[in-house]
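Homework-ish question, so no full write-ups if that breaks the rules, but can someone show me the predicted structure for this set?
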Amino acid sequence: MTLIIENLVKKFPKEDTELTAIENFNLVVKNEEFVCILGPSGCGKTTILRIIAGLEQKTSGSIRLDEREITGPGQDRGMVFQEFALFPWRTVQKNVEFGLEIKKVPSEERKRIANEFITLVGLKGFENSYPYQLSGGMKQRVGIARALANDPEVLLMDEPFGALDAQTRNLMQKELLRIRQQTKKTIVFITHSVDEACFLADRVVVMTARPGAVKEIFVIDAPQPRDRASIEFANLRKRILAELEREVIAGPSSPSNSPEKA
Amino acid sequence: MTLIIENLVKKFPKEDTELTAIENFNLVVKNEEFVCILGPSGCGKTTILRIIAGLEQKTSGSIRLDEREITGPGQDRGMVFQEFALFPWRTVQKNVEFGLEIKKVPSEERKRIANEFITLVGLKGFENSYPYQLSGGMKQRVGIARALANDPEVLLMDEPFGALDAQTRNLMQKELLRIRQQTKKTIVFITHSVDEACFLADRVVVMTARPGAVKEIFVIDAPQPRDRASIEFANLRKRILAELEREVIAGPSSPSNSPEKA
Amino acid sequence: MKDNPLRIFGLFNRERFLANMNQTIFGIAAIVTFIAAWWGFSIYLNLAYVPSPDRVVWAFFTSFEKTEISLGTNMWGNILASLQRFGIGFVFALALALPVGLIMGFIKTADSFFKPLVELFRPIPPVAWVPIFLLIFGIFWGPVMVIFLGVFFPLLSNVIFGVKSVDQPLIDAARTMGANRITLFKKVIFPYTIPFIMTGITIGLGIGWMCIVAAEMIGAVGGGVGFYIFYSESIGRYEFMYAGMAVIAILGIGTVGVSHYVENKLNRRMGVK
Amino acid sequence: MKDNPLRIFGLFNRERFLANMNQTIFGIAAIVTFIAAWWGFSIYLNLAYVPSPDRVVWAFFTSFEKTEISLGTNMWGNILASLQRFGIGFVFALALALPVGLIMGFIKTADSFFKPLVELFRPIPPVAWVPIFLLIFGIFWGPVMVIFLGVFFPLLSNVIFGVKSVDQPLIDAARTMGANRITLFKKVIFPYTIPFIMTGITIGLGIGWMCIVAAEMIGAVGGGVGFYIFYSESIGRYEFMYAGMAVIAILGIGTVGVSHYVENKLNRRMGVK
Amino acid sequence: MQPAASTNKKIIYWTQIAPVQQKAALLAGTVDGAVGWEPYCSDALNDGTGSVVVWSDQVWPEHPCCVIAVRYSDAFPNNPADNQLVARVVKANMVATNWIVQTINAGSGTNYTSLIQMGAQFSGIQASVVQSALGHIEYSNQLTPAVKAAFANFTGMFADLGQISNLAGYPNTTAFANAITNTSYLAMAPDIQPSATILGSVHLGYLNGDLHQFARVVAMNTSLWGGKTLFQDYGVNVTSPAPYANGGAVMDGFAAGSIDMGYLGCPPAILKRINANIQIQIVSLVNSEGSAIIGKTPINSLSQLEGKIVATPGPASIQHLLLLYYCNLNGYQLKLKGT
Ligand SMILES: Nc1ncnc2c1ncn2[C@@H]1O[C@H](COP(=O)(O)OP(=O)(O)OP(=O)(O)O)[C@@H](O)[C@H]1O
Ligand SMILES: Nc1ncnc2c1ncn2[C@@H]1O[C@H](COP(=O)(O)OP(=O)(O)OP(=O)(O)O)[C@@H](O)[C@H]1O
Ligand SMILES: [Mg+2]
Ligand SMILES: [Mg+2]
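A: Not a homework solution, just the prediction itself:
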């Protein structure tokens, strides 16, 4: 599926005025493309993902999926949340089965799929644990398994590996690439790790500080699997880091953009 | 202050049996030392930090601060939480002032200190925002400012920079080192970033997978500020990564360690 | 799941055990103090309306054994009368408040329509309806209707409150997995609302018992435990009045106990801790 | 803070405005339908106890204007009587339930001691005390005591529940910043508990009005709006009875309104959204 | 009857307390005076708790008090069989009344002893109190022109008080009083004989502990009438719900269809017949007189009650009307305590 974002603007109310979180954001994500979004903390990454998911209303602009304007959430777009959003009254197993239940997948099949993804994220043995019994990283992995089990065409991932240790993170990255290879998903992926972005993405989008817009897009045509030790990889990392650094040092414009408060 | 942990064990109830999260953990953190803890997701890092903070009761073993057994929390140990734990009814400013209010610091002084640390974490302009109005990384930074403003002798930090972009993270790392330099704090710091550990720590502790214990300790005597591009740095990173990799691949022992369930 | 004998030892916690002991001792001390104080007062004051505890206990058992000639029944008969009205009124309230509350919480339009009506009637204390309901619906259905109102409104408010307070991130997550309004409702909102419903039921039970006592006292027809209390007081047999109050308290505790039992069952089925 | 004129335009949301319009229209439709149905029924049934809306409105105003000779007072007098008892009973309940609840929620030992006593008395519906309280405490303080009980227990439960449901991570955070039990209490538990207290007060207000109506009907001593309702029914002037019920409803809405106002003020001072 | 001028500052307060509890209230000091029905007046008087201010017959000689009313609807009693049942209840009441009057006149004997005992049990009051109470109640059944005139007079007072605003379509109080009294059953009574078979059943309401309605208690006592109730003796099975708290509730019982006939005071019958349009007729008198205003000893006059509180059974009762009337007569204003 192709995602077209044009002149997207999003404002939030803030105290007596308003805050422009996103301003004139333009991006096309092609079918089966893997796009990583990088940007300073608070620049609007989560906000954009939520708008794509249909969970947040845009203030103005246009956002289309295969030429259909997005008006609400749908099974075609799955999301991994930055703050996990697990159902506290469901066990790990039942959390992962949630989407499959909705699709009315038969119980046996549901179990099989759920177990597959629970194993994939390394949580075998915790099928019957409740979210409050898990560590931060384990919760995050349940969220990933839940989104993957549902097999959406577009996968929206908000810092999905942020709470994982380097090794688990590497394993998960490889698994994600394998799954993408098999299932031809379109993926929008938010991360703070330039290394991760370079390892995964077809294109890396660097955003400006608040109000968020596209600052620069890096196309990576190195074939998968990529070698982190290669010179090209190191060069790319450096270029992106430099770009980001400039943005963070420039800093966000005043948080309140009402003329009187400026 | 010197922290001595001996034969620490922590068990949690799990379904009909119990889960050993920590087993025979031994560590001495010297006065003014900066120790980083690394380990696979779910290995018990948060649990150890909570026991040091006095928020969780150990199952057995001994944990002492300057020869006094730790029995509960105290102002001498400050903590930055993995899941932020901001007071939702307080603004950013009021959250940061919390500890100072408790210490009965006069209002003017309180404001000055709070503003200093809010600026330090890059949240100027958001003093009057409530937590729900912040992005993930912004919340995390409020948590850091809150702990620092309180100026504890021992600083316990649980993945404090996990939700930050690389640049902000770098800035924060440098600020932390500067503060440590000035205030001679003892710091226990949990991270998933080997790079971060190598950049910050006097010693890096690598933990085993569940049940968590100390696997290996790396002493880093390179002087601050360290050069990430240096060969020593790269070598150290590689060694630690290799150590971690082995642990993750070995994987945790069965989550339930009751003999009947094994 | 096989039980693990180690667990009993592993989890046995000496401090917790002692703490529990302490609590029990304090609790018993409180009750003993209370009874002693009561007994002392009853002897010291020597007033008919402060009977000693043993008189009340005696009256309690007597009220069950002996038929009260001027009422033509004993306590069992009165309990039956109250319980019948209570049960019917309660079940009707439950049967109406649950669907209406869930729908009002979930569908904006329904809320806009029903809310003004609810807000019109809710502020009228159910007890205020007693006289007119006795007239319109008679001595059986009158109190039933009062209980219905007494249970209906707090339950409705709680259900609506529950539906509206579902964590937004959970709704978001379910929607991205393709939940439509119906499944959202079945799999997220309803499980989330159960504790609120149960709170509403507990409050409703309390108010329901109050309503029936009031209705039976105000109407003072058709028997019931409330009537028994009123009657015993009016002829100055205060120990029987206190016995009647104890019976009402026990009935109240019983119904709340049943509701907690159901709550636990439901929670277990829903997998909520 | 200066007001920002842009904000008014920036936040003006056509869809939200239309949605609100829709809601208002539905609400008005509901009320109109109700009044029309009532009017129709009253004409169709032609029963004394289903007076038409205009009769009730007329009775409402008449009850304020005209002194009822056989009572020696008008509605104002009855409102005064009810409001006095209500106010005193409510304030006493508040003054006792707040500290006791906070302490019981916070100090294990206090909880162990008081809980059995609370659990002994709570299941007795406050209304069941009406006859004996009237005898012991008289026609003024009797109803006051009933209201006291009616407000005290739900408020107490809510306060305890609030204290116990404070988010553990927030307590943890405060403790690591050196909060001792007192500051923990002042800066975390109390602010967290405010919404629970307010819920308890709202429930307590509802129960309090129910108690006073019941007490005034059962005892029917010393006037009050509950008495007025009962009296009007007993001589068959139903339109005045409904007027009395409307008055009670308005008093109820008024007190809840005051409590919401206080809640908002408090929340603003505490910085809770 | 007009309210005293508002310049009149002489106020007596009232509060509503059921007669059964009035003595306790006097003792507790909650009130300083009370107006109630027998035997509760005598109960307070006999042990010196209270002193008489005035007996009701001193204010309104021979005033009617309780009556038997019957509910009129499309269903009952609209045929000869139902009319028979009503007449037979009236007859049984009449027989019981006569028995009471004779027994009281005899003043002793087994019948007298059991009468006193019945009264004591029914009202929960000592036998000696019942004995003196019976001396203040006039038991009679006939709806004489004087009784009807008294009904008309009461109706007029209610109109003056503003408690009623119309006369149910009748041109004046006399016409109304005539319309709600139906003497035909009393007229049928002399010819009615006991019946060997049960002809039907009647739901009959009555008030809690009111010795005015003693005839019903006597009629229901099976030991006096050869193992059945007097009503059964006359072919009627009588069933009753629990006793009603006041006459207004009995009228509600009629409206709700819970009872077919009932014992109640005439004021609530008049008030609710007009205001609530509850279709009843008064078919028999039950008693006259038998109420009193009393003060807490040593209070024994209205002037001593000035500024004090008097307990009444409630503003719809004849006792309340008595107090109101007597206060007005003596230039006092009655005001609800606490307002
Ligand atoms: N309250 C609890 N009840 C039961 N089990 C728990 C509880 N808290 C933690 N655990 C278990 O203890 C183990 C260690 O958890 P902990 O949170 O310390 O891990 P961690 O090292 O911080 O992991 P991460 O890097 O993912 O945050 C996990 O297996 C977890 O399931
Ligand atoms: N509900 C809200 N109300 C008001 N402001 C909001 C809200 N949600 C987000 N914002 C603001 O919008 C801006 C962008 O937030 P967003 O969460 O999209 O950032 P982000 O790029 O995801 O940051 P991070 O990397 O820290 O998660 C922030 O300044 C934040 O304060
Ligand atoms: Mg984000
Ligand atoms: Mg952790």
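Now go work out the reasoning yourself. Hint: The longest helix of chain D spans residues 181-218.
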